[in-house]
Write a structure and sequence with these properties.
By secondary structure, the chain is an alpha/beta fold. It contains 18 helices and 18 strands. The chain has helices spanning 3-7, 14-23, 33-46, 81-84, 106-109, 145-175, 182-216, 223-253, 260-285, 297-312, 333-349, 392-396, 415-425, 481-493, 504-511, 531-541, 554-563, 577-591; strands spanning 50-57, 60-67, 74-75, 90-93, 116-123, 129-137, 293-295, 316-322, 329-331, 355-366, 376-385, 429-434, 440-447, 473-477, 497-501, 519-523, 546-551, 568-572. The longest helix has 35 residues, at 182-216. The chain is globular.
């Protein structure tokens, strides 16, 4: 079939396009971090679960990088991206199922059941399309103009990365020709270095353009700003950990072990502060690993009342108006407590001369879509103060990170941002009603738990971590050597026999053997075979095998929660030896006949 019949009226020839693609020597290569990072950034920026960098070869579409999915190459007949490079600009299809071009596409009609698509061509300097940068969703949606502009900027970054990769490849080829003479080698290397320098300058300019597009995209997860805001504190905490460990190392080497306990305590204190800071940042970025469960919001407010009164001081009157027989909320109770405390502190600071603060609970019924709040029933937690209120300008920036009206040194501007991030991540909504001189009313809409009746659960903690009962055997699978070694040592300290593997393939060799294994402890994200695939394959050989997943990412935790079967559980990093001991003992006891 001729290129004219294949592509129709396009301002380029297929021969020139394929020659340009071949020039980059990129097809059928291994994954590369630079391209994977751009795909992940595209998915995060557009707030969709999936993204790809695709290259269009003769008769096929080949994925160079993927985030959120793992598709093989597809033929032209099944390619959505082929349509994208036929036209200028961004191609966005709000619902693929209702578009006659794609309704019968196997990627739409079958797994992964794509519904939304937005993509833009990867154009060379000569205007030749090499492929696409595209994002997907399994639900119909639209992208704002700012997000589409950012997607185009990221596509230029992909092309810059391709050109840089090719330049580096050319440099390596030149170095292999050293036997052709020093003069020619020096000249070629000089030319290549000049070209690389020029490409780096272009990449830096394109990166600045992409960052500008990110700033204008109305996203609340401004991770770059957060990083700048807390780098100093985090480095201080790392200094505390490293300094204490170095002193311990020196004291042990010198045989002076008398004060080691003090240095260990100092290191653990700094490490715990760093973990706490990370959790607070992840709460703002809406990437924190949450532990949602049924929460009696009334009981939580009552249990915090004494703390809140002490926080407010004597000049502010605290009142509560709690709806009787309130439904339970489906949320993380610890993070909700932090959110309520944040709101109370903000209200206190808005009433320096004293006043009244009221905490209310109710069941809210939403009949029509409001902002990002879907219709349905919610548990409503409100904090109302009689303070100075907010102007329209302040109200418009209330959730911006590091925005504060307080004097320097009296506020970080992260309080409301973290509340916003947590509530959004839990599936709820935040609304502020305020005007200058009229106080402020902040409403938290929390999703209802499926079991809406009140429920009281007593939780008891063991005074010491439970140990192994009869030397049970645990297989630990973790790609990070330091983490794997630590988990193995902790389990041995608790009396368990252990086996270990650095990836899923190595673990399967052990699992397919004859050794008794009472529990599989595996990270979710592994090189090659991931944690879920490992567990599924392992249970084909050992149907009753208990599996404990470990993860430090919210996206992995949410994904993991979706495939947890009977005999499976999850442990969020970082965790203490006590938490590990309780979880392992609980799972082993549960598996006993």
């Amino acid at each position: 079939m001729s290129s004219h019949n294949l592509w129709g009226a396009v301002p380029w020839s297929e021969e020139a396009r394929l020659a340009a693609l071949a020039h980059f020597n990129i097809l059928d290569t291994l994954p590369e971090q630079a391209f994977d990072d751009i795909a992940c950034l595209a998915a995060q920026l557009c707030e969709v679960p999936m993204a790809q960098i695709n290259l269009i070869d003769a008769g096929r579409q080949w994925p160079k990088a993927q985030a959120g999915l793992a598709l093989p190459e597809v033929l032209f007949a099944d390619s959505i991206c082929v349509q994208t490079i036929r036209q200028p600009g961004v191609m966005m299809v709000a619902d693929l199922r209702v578009d006659p071009r794609f309704a019968d596409n196997p990627l739409v009609a079958n797994a992964p059941n794509l519904r939304f698509y937005a993509g833009t061509a990867l154009l060379t300097a000569e205007g030749l399309p090499l492929g696409t940068l595209c994002v997907y969703d399994v639900e119909p949606r639209h992208l704002s103009e700012s997000k589409l502009a950012a997607l185009v900027a990221l596509a230029r970054q992909v092309v810059s990365q391709l050109e840089l990769r090719r330049a580096l490849y050319d440099q390596q080829e030149a170095l292999r020709d050293l036997n052709e003479g020093l003069e020619r080698r020096v000249a070629e290397r000089t030319l290549e270095m000049l070209r690389i320098n020029e490409l780096l300058q272009v990449e830096m300019r394109e990166r600045e353009n992409a960052e500008e597009a990110l700033r204008h995209a109305q996203k609340m997860d401004a991770i770059g700003q957060l990083t700048g805001g807390i780098a100093h504190d985090f480095n201080n905490m790392l200094t505390g950990v490293l300094g204490a460990l170095e002193l311990i190392q020196r004291r042990v080497a010198a045989g002076r072990v008398g004060e080691i306990g003090r240095y260990i305590d100092a290191a653990m204190t700094s490490a715990n502060r760093a973990a706490s800071l990370t959790h607070r940042l992840l709460a703002f970025a809406r990437r924190q690993s949450l532990n949602p469960k049924a929460v009696d919001v009334n009981r939580m407010v009552i249990s915090m009342e004494e703390l809140l009164r002490r926080t407010l001081g004597e000049s502010i009157v605290l009142r509560t108006d709690l709806q009787a027989r309130l439904w339970q909320a489906n949320t993380d109770e610890h993070q909700l407590e932090n959110a309520l405390l944040n709101l109370v502190i903000n209200a206190r600071d808005a009433m320096p001369g004293g006043g009244q603060l009221t905490i209310r609970t109710a069941v809210a019924r939403i009949d029509i879509q409001q902002d990002t709040l879907a219709p349905g029933e919610y548990v409503l937690l409100s904090v109302e103060d009689s303070g100075s209120g907010m102007s329209a300008e302040v109200l418009g920036r209330a959730f911006d990170p590091f925005f504060t009206t307080k004097p320097i040194g009296q506020g970080t501007g992260l309080g409301l941002s973290m509340v916003y991030g947590f509530i959004k991540q839990t599936g709820g909504h935040v609304h502020i009603d305020s005007a200058e001189g009229q106080g402020a009313r902040i409403h938290l809409y929390l999703p209802c738990h499926l079991e809406r009746g009140e429920r009281h659960i007593a939780e008891h903690e063991n005074p010491s971590p439970p140990r192994a009962l009869k030397g049970e055997r645990v297989l630990v699978v973790e790609g990070e050597v330091a983490v794997r070694t630590l988990v193995v040592d902790e389990l041995r300290e608790l009396g368990y026999a252990t086996l270990e593997a650095g990836d899923g393939e190595a673990a399967l060799i052990v699992l397919q053997g004859q050794e008794r294994i009472d529990l599989l402890v595996s990270d979710v994200v592994l090189p090659g075979l991931d944690g879920q695939q490992l567990a599924d394959t392992a249970r084909q050989h050992r149907p009753d095998l208990s599996v404990l997943f470990m993860t430090g990412y919210a996206s992995s935790a949410e994904m993991c929660a979706g495939f947890l079967d009977q005999g499976m559980d999850m442990l969020i990093k970082p965790f203490s030896i006590d938490e590990l001991a309780l979880k392992v003992r609980k799972m082993i006891e549960r598996a006993r006949p």
